[in-house]
Design brief:
The chain is of the alpha/beta class. The protein has two helices and eight strands. The strands form two sheets. It has a four-stranded mixed β-sheet, with helices on one face. A four-stranded mixed β-sheet has the order 5-8-7-6, covered by helices on one side. Strand 3 (38-43) and strand 4 (46-52) form a beta hairpin. It is globular and about 50 Å long.
């Protein structure tokens, strides 16, 4: 298990820094740094860097294989984020759905889509052993 002194880092492309900053701050992420070519966020305790690279944007994104997000271990926090996304009218790529119903790996999930067509998945497993 991860120790609290470690932070996961992810870098993704974006097409416009202002639009990207507004989106991720609207999602509740804290803007940590901004430069002429990138913005860095505290993404639910991890580091997300959005590099200005409009030529690398997926014209038609697909869930698999490329997406990222957060697996919640607290259903209340998952529901809070879902309510926040609905309240802020954030664009959904996939509305909330139940996957693997009745199986050990059953979980609820939804996908958001950012302004550069990056897909963000948020999920909660009923069985905490299935998080990894």
């Amino acid at each position: 298990m991860r120790e609290t002194n470690k932070v996961f880092h992810l870098a993704i492309p974006c097409k416009d820094l202002d639009e990207t900053a507004a989106y991720y701050e609207g999602l509740g992420c804290r803007l940590a740094r901004r430069y002429a070519d990138r913005v860095t966020f505290d993404f639910f305790g991890d580091q997300l860097v959005c590099h200005l690279n409009p030529d690398e944007i997926d014209a038609e994104p697909k869930m698999y294989p490329r997406h990222f997000g957060v697996t919640f271990t607290n259903i209340g926090e998952f529901n809070d984020l879902l309510e926040w996304a609905l309240k802020k009218d954030l664009p959904f790529f996939q509305k909330p759905m139940l996957r693997f119903e009745g199986r050990k790996e059953e979980h609820i999930t939804f996908f958001l889509i950012d302004p550069a067509n990056n897909l963000l998945e948020f999920k909660y497993y009923n069985d905490a052993e299935m998080v990894y």
